[in-house]
Amino acid sequence: MKSITFGITGASGSIYAQRLLIQLNENPQVSRIDLVISPAGVRVAGEELGINVAGTEPRVVRELIGAVSDKVIVHSPSDIGATIASGSYLSDAMVIVPCSMGSLAAIASGITRDLIHRAADVMLKENKLLVLVPRETPFNAIHLENMLKLSRLGVRIIPAMPSFYHHPKTIDDLIEHFTHRLLDHLGVAHEQKTRWEGSKKF
Ligand SMILES: Cc1cc2nc3c(=O)[nH]c(=O)nc-3n(C[C@H](O)[C@H](O)[C@H](O)COP(=O)(O)O)c2cc1C
After folding, report:
1. Which of 6, 8, 12, 103 to mutate to test the pocket of ligand 1 (most atoms within 8 A of CB)?
2. pLDDT (tens digit, 9 = 90+) per residue, 59-109?
3. CA dihedral over 183, 188, 189, 191, signed as positive or negative
């Protein structure tokens, strides 16, 4: 059983967070999800998904994934005394999706002014799996240097870049293909048939 820490920050792409959270919540291998949404993440989710995910009540989870869940615990980004702020708390992996350039920079420089950055810092110091889904275009040299720095520390940098080799027909197809890749990196097994099976003859 896995315990996953899940950060949502204010980059574009809240729909990736929504889909991944649904998949983790439905997955029987996942026993607990500690969710933190930054104020900018709340704002972007409002803009992009038309939902209100401010606060820590169960309502936030219902807004995001359409159901309440015993598995998902919502923490305030200002609660630096939450469980996930400590290395003694056993979280198997952390994902930040989408990850803003601001949060990327804070994590790369060890500045932990909110719970998302602190939880990421804890994953680094405890040598645990940290997956970041940065989103910006174009990247400037600061963004690229921050990603390189974190990659050298073993952080998985997985930008939200859709692929087309699986012949997506809808936006949903693009999103699912990407979130399945995230599940692979988080070590959460899934049955979804979105893997490359070799070139077809044409
Ligand atoms: C609609 C909207 C879209 C945004 N998209 C991005 C983005 O794709 N990448 C990014 O780095 N910042 C983006 N921003 C800016 C961040 O939200 C801002 O830098 C914020 O301070 C990040 O804070 P956080 O990392 O604590 O969530 C966006 C802001 C808004 C309102």
Report:
1. 12
2. 999 999 999 999 999 999 999 999 999 999 999 999 999 999 999 999 999
3. negative
